[in-house]
Amino acid sequence: MASLLHPEWLPRPQPAQEVVTVREASSPSGKSGSGVVSYRDAARHAMPAVVNIYTAKAVSPQHPLLNDPMFRRFFGDRFEGDEAQRTSSLGSGVIVSADGYIVTNNHVVESAEEIQVALADGRTAEAKLIGTDPETDLAVIRVELSNLPTIAFADDSKIEIGDVVLAIGNPFGVGQTVTMGIVSATKRTQLGINTFENFIQTDAAINPGNSGGALIDTRGDLLGINTAIYSRTGGSLGIGFAIPASSVKEVMEAIIKDGSVVRGWLGVEPQDVTDELAGSFKLKNARGALVAGVVRGSPADQAGLRPGDIVLAIDKDEVRDTSSMLNLIAALRPDQKVVLRLFREGREILLPVRIGKRPSFRQPS
């Protein structure tokens, strides 16, 4: 089961920092004078830019009998006005700008009324929510502090399976912690975690409280934002997922500029083409995305797309499956004109369409 890292609230720990020093036979990282291989330089470079995030929201107490007219007749409104209970949670974030912008997960700050940030140097500040993007589970908050440490974005297109990575965050509220692992896989999709998925998978230990924390390379640059784990117990089983730095930067810049992310929209319900479906449609091999439904009045409907069409390409970009189709459409600008290459009734056709603006969260592609 893949799950987001929604942690239970734990008491705030005393400021503490733990760095895992790794001893190996060989590594691309630098060696100390004693010949011990260590990633201490990468950790020291990145740790100051990783923050702890504490959020709180009020929950009004609600007695189950308050809506009973007979109960209210005898007891009146004596239960009303009780002080609202407060629920709290914690997570992590990464300072990406000297202006105070911090990237974290949407589920870390979702519905929060108060957001407090604790820096590695001991400073604390109240943060303002700049914007969120639930479809990638990213959010941007900001603090008004000076002399802030920042982290550089790595080129995640160059990472390969087996590369060493470090995860930095505040697991279980014990304090800032660094763990080490490797890149287990890249471009993980169809996990059912977010609408738009392109995860880096790692076996670096990631636990509740690490949400929004940094996944860094051996130079200390940001490879991704830790967001989810595969777990049957709620703890780390060696399968964690991070949103790649390129996606983080794109979403962050859009939120800072416009307060939200604007994406393209076609208006279809896509379905993966299996071998059986390909055979029934007389398609030579399983590829593309089958149009299972068309939203009435959508750009797809206006362009003449039909249920049963198979989208093979958008302009010159091949459509491998529903995930690639969703990402290709989302990357387009509203009002942009594109040509769809479709497989319809045993032959390929070209269909021009004007892309629309994607509606609210979790709408058809």
From TrEMBL:
Say if the entry is tagged with keyword Magnesium: no
Q: Which InterPro entries match?
A: PDZ, PDZ_sf, Pept_S1C_Do, Peptidase_S1_PA, Peptidase_S1C
Q: Which residues form the PDZ domain?
A: 263-346
What Enzyme Commission number(s) apply to this enzyme? Answer: 3.4.21.107
Is the Manganese keyword given for this protein? Answer: no
Q: Which CDD domains match?
A: cpPDZ1_DegP-like
Domain of life of the source: Bacteria
Q: Which UniProt keywords apply?
A: Hydrolase, Protease, Repeat, Serine protease, Signal
MF (Gene Ontology): hydrolase activity
- Per the similarity annotation, which family is this? Belongs to the peptidase S1C family.
Q: What is this protein called?
A: Do family serine endopeptidase
